[in-house]
């Protein structure tokens, strides 16, 4: 589940999922909803693999989002779907499928500078995981 | 005054017509001071004083020099409020905070002035708008085709700034004199910049970016201070160009990496953080020095970025029939950085997050021609109304560590602005007002609509009224290029 947040200068979202892996997959969807008016759907033809590690889960989430932002804005690769595995410790392995960036087709909403730690939280609530992220745009 | 908020009560007192003090409370180490009118106070109340809470958070950081400040265009940021100014004393354990500089390191504005008249512009406006849109790309998904830079040269540019470009024909020698710190921050360390930051920045030199970045062709429609205007070379009806951009992906990456790194080391230095985006390390620490080296390199990249955009702007003017009509750099300044400066007889690190350096008359850092009038302060407004030129004052030197406002400040979130713009044809509405808009996409035009911003005139009135800047001139847009 994704809920977009309103922040005067910036944008953000809250995501909810039953597992950590699912939470990171939802975070990709949240990011695409910020970046595009009509994000690409389905399965992309191109494949990428991402490996990351971080001292804690929240930092791992920030790194994940920053990596995705780089793939879209720097490499012109828009991940459409992700299979994410997060290990204790914390590390992440993600297999991404995606499509080339097409700013006109997907309704590009403008650049994102980065994910912030402001108001960032990852918490367990009622048997599922919740995260809140604010992006600087 | 005592205002109840959802997160507790905030006490503040009025010191003068536009100046308020938040006395030290809770974990604050020093008092905080903010500048506001009645209307700006209402805006602060409407967001439950969240930005004042952020200002109070800044006042908790070690080594902060009294007072922590915010300018009249304060609004909610992350960590520091936008419009925040805070100085830290390195000899008192003062810190540097990458979040207090912001993602867009050395983001700023450059004002070019011409001898072209408004009437001359009108006849060639369509052509010029198209030429500028082609010449100044947003830089998303594609870099410049007409300018490439290799890694060794980019490393030199991070040290030398715009001078590197001017020496290679991208600009004129006189340009450098009109740039804050001559476009070259000392201590820039290209080796403190990561591989990823290089990857992001390399194809983006000479690109505008999106969001609130823009290039505007304007004219001077009002002069408030004849003497300062004369010193700056401004007169009514004259065409000007305002460029707003920053350090692009290179700066964003430097910020991201150092915020993370500082979060890890802050506890080691006993720094307690009320917001993680305030992550900080002592100025005088290996981490602090590394960040300042990387930040200065990113700052020089930002100055160079505006230099290259100015070069391609000049070419667009030439192609539009304005050949042989010079576009002189009036001033280029940054509104997101941290600089070591002398205030009150000691050297302090002044963070300006969405605030402009505003040195007063007589300051030796200013070019000779501005020394009597004070530093030009450029305050862009929203794209439909106006921007202002102010001058730094003795008041800004005395009260705000030589700082002033940097813009209008948002009052509507981007999402709300897009909703409000639905069903409206903003580009056509602006064309009816005589303003041509060229934009990569509708989204940035919608979210940047005039109504999404506070009135810059209000911010300028408070700045002028409080004596931390002096009104010099007003500029009206005729062409707006958005990323």
- Average of pLDDT of chain B: 95
Biggest chain pair contact, residues each? A-B, 36 and 46 residues
> What is the terminal separation of chain B in angstroms?
43 Å
* Portion in strands of chain B: 25-35%
Query: What is the CATH topology classification name of chain B?
Result: tRNA-splicing ligase RtcB
Radius of gyration of chain B: 21 Å
Structural class assignment of chain A? alpha+beta
Q: Output the CATH homologous superfamily of chain A.
A: Archease domain
What integer value in Å does the Rg of chain A equal? 14 Å
Structural class of chain B: alpha+beta
- Beta-strand content of chain A: 35-45%
For the residues shown, what is the average pLDDT of chain A? 92
**Uncertain regions spanning at least 5 consecutive residues of chain A:** none
Total domain units of chain A? 1
Q: What's the overall geometry of chain B?
A: globular
CATH topology heading of chain A: Archease, Possible Chaperone, Chain: A, domain 1
Helix content of chain A: 10-25%
Describe the structure.
Chain A is of the alpha+beta class. Chain A has a single domain, classed as Archease domain (Archease, Possible Chaperone, Chain: A, domain 1, 3-Layer(bab) Sandwich). Helices cover 24% and strands 42% of the residues of chain A. Chain A has 2 helices and 8 strands, in the order ββαβαβββββ. In chain A, the strands form 2 sheets. In chain A, strands 1, 2, 6, 7 and 8 form a 5-stranded antiparallel beta sheet that branches. Chain A has a 3-stranded antiparallel beta sheet with strand order 3-5-4. In chain A, helix 1 runs parallel beside helix 2. Chain B has 483 residues and is of the alpha+beta class. In chain B, the strands form 5 sheets. In chain B, strands 9, 10, 11, 13, 17, 18, 20 and 21 form an 8-stranded mixed beta sheet that branches. In chain B, strand 17 and strand 18 (387-391) form a beta hairpin. The A-B interface holds A 4, 6-11, 37, 55, 59, 62-63, 66, 70, 73-74, 76, 101, 103-104, 107-111, 113-120, 134, 136-137 and B 47, 75-79, 82, 99, 102-104, 138, 140-141, 196, 199-200, 209-211, 249, 252-253, 255-256, 259-260, 263-264, 275-277, 279, 410-416, 440-441, 443-444, 447, 483.
């Amino acid at each position: 589940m994704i809920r977009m947040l309103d922040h005067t200068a910036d944008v953000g979202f809250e995501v909810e999922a039953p597992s950590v892996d699912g939470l990171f997959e939802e975070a990709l969807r949240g990011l695409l909803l910020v970046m595009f008016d009509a994000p690409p759907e389905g399965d992309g033809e191109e494949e990428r693999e991402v490996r990351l590690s971080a001292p804690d889960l929240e930092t791992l989430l920030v790194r994940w989002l920053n990596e995705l932002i780089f793939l879209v804005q720097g490499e012109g690769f828009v991940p459409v779907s992700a299979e994410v595995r997060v290990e204790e410790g914390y590390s992440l392995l993600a297999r991404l499928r995606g499509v080339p960036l097409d700013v006109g087709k997907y309704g590009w909403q403008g650049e994102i500078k980065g994910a912030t730690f402001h108001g960032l939280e990852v918490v367990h609530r009622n048997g599922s995981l919740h995260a809140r992220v604010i992006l600087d745009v | 005054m005592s205002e109840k908020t959802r997160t507790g009560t905030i006490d503040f007192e009025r010191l003068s017509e536009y100046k308020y003090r938040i006395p030290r409370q809770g974990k604050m180490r020093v008092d905080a001071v903010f500048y506001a009118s009645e209307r700006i106070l209402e805006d602060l109340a409407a967001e439950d004083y969240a930005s004042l809470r952020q200002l109070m958070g800044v006042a908790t950081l070690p080594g902060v020099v009294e007072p922590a400040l915010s300018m009249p265009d304060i609004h909610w940021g992350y960590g520091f409020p936008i419009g925040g100014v805070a100085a830290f004393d390195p000899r008192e354990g003062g810190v540097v905070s990458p979040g207090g500089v912001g993602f867009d390191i050395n983001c700023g504005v450059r004002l070019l002035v011409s001898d072209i008249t408004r009437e001359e512009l009108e006849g060639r406006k369509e052509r010029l708008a198209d030429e500028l849109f082609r010449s100044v790309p947003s830089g998303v998904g594609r870099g410049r085709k007409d300018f490439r830079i290799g890694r060794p040269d980019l490393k030199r540019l991070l040290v030398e700034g715009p001078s590197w470009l001017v020496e290679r024909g991208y600009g004129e020698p006189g340009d450098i004199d009109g740039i804050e710190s001559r476009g070259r921050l000392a201590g820039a360390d290209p080796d403190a910049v990561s591989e990823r930051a290089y990857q992001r920045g390399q194809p983006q030199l000479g690109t505008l970016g999106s969001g609130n970045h823009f290039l505007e062709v304007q004219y001077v429609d009002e002069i408030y201070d004849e003497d300062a205007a004369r010193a700056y070379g401004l007169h009514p009806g004259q065409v000007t160009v305002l460029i707003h951009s920053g350090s692009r992906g290179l700066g964003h990456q430097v910020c991201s990496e150092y915020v993370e790194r500082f979060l890890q080391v802050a506890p080691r230095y006993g720094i307690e953080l009320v917001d993680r985006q305030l992550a900080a390390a002592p100025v005088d620490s290996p981490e602090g020095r590394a960040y300042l080296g990387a930040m200065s390199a990113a700052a020089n990249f930002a100055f160079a970025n505006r230099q290259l955009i100015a070069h391609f702007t000049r070419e667009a003017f030439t192609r539009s029939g304005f050949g042989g009509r010079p576009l002189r750099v009036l001033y280029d300044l940054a509104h997101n950085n941290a600089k070591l400066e002398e205030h009150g007889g000691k050297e302090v690190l002044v963070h300006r997050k969405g605030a402009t350096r505003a040195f007063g008359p007589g300051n030796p850092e200013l070019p000779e021609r501005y020394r009597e009038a004070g530093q030009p302060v450029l305050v862009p407004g929203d794209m439909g109304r106006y921007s202002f030129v102010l001058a730094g004052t003795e008041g800004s030197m005395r009260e705000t560590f030589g700082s002033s406002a940097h813009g209008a400040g948002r009052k509507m979130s981007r999402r709300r602005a897009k909703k409000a713009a639905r069903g409206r044809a903003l580009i056509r509405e602006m064309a009816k007002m005589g303003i041509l808009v060229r934009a990569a996409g509708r989204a940035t035009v919608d979210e940047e609509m005039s109504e999404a911003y506070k009135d810059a005139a209000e911010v300028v009135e408070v700045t002028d009224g409080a004596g931390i800047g002096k009104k010099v001139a007003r500029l009206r847009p005729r062409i707006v290029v958005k990323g």
